Amino acid sequence: MxxxxxxxxxxxxxxxxxxxxxxxxxxxxKLGILIRYAKSAEFSGLLYRKDGEAYMxxxxxxxxxxxxxxxxxxxxxxxxxxxxxxxxxxxxxxxAKPRTFKExxxxxxxxxxxxxxxxxxxxIENYRETGITDTVIHSLAEKYQxxxxxxxYRLRNLNFTSAQ
Length: 164
Fold this sequence. Notes:
Largest sheet: 4 strands, mixed
Strand content: 15-25%
Oligomer: single chain
Strand order of the largest sheet: 1-3-2-4
Helix content: 40-55%
């Protein structure tokens, strides 16, 4: 998790992209990745590299928060796994777990990119007395434009909450 976290923090600093919600499409653009959107019953996203160019396809039929996570996930592959030319994220409707270390690492990168630790730390200070409730998770998820499930998972991984 440390490599994914540090890579996300580094790219946010390098590209001066620290305001939430993080504009992941702009980050992809700054990295030279061309994004195209298309409806698909088979995939959430894919990253393809050829002849020094990088292309990303994102499933436009999925929710905006899912599309944002998928873009961040593919950026993770682009930065963390430069030797592999193709990554396809098949649709799982939330039921399947990542199968490989690279998939887990790309998910960790995506969470760190979309929900930067420093920003979350500042935000949760406001809830020190009340604690992290479902309402707080909902509010933070809206602010960061991520799913409540992603926010809850990120807060738990950073030991900011003991929520289930």
